């Protein structure tokens, strides 16, 4: 039996009842990213200076990400590949490939689609980045929805608890 799954890409989607501008800012500002996704998010301007917490990330800038449940030495760095200011945001995601977020307004909600591409198609890529990242993004998109719709942050912030779905 032939395996027809494309391990180099996946998509996850969720509906969020919030203004598109708020959803976009949640992805493209330090304040936004730290509210639902990261322990620390720093966007750097073209000159390498830290951007203000509520300043939108733009094309060509860089970032560093740190998560709850991981030591400071675990940091993801990359480049903003696309940021149109309204409904598209893309960034490199280390060896795991590239991520693009599309926001589509439908009636009174925003459909959030995250696509991760250029995932290596080998055993590590399939399990660690395809399955692992898809699992992580599924939780974090649910947390984005929870926070923007109800104000509840579902992340584990207790550093003593390791290997948690929500950190």
UniProtKB/TrEMBL annotation:
Pfam families: AHSA1 (PF08327)
Signal peptide range: none
InterPro entries: ASHA1/2-like_C (IPR013538), START-like_dom_sf (IPR023393)
Transmembrane segments: none
Residue ranges constituting the Activator of Hsp90 ATPase homologue 1/2-like C-terminal domain according to the UniProt record: 18-149
UniProt record similarity statement: Belongs to the AHA1 family.
Protein name as it appears in the record: Activator of Hsp90 ATPase homologue 1/2-like C-terminal domain-containing protein
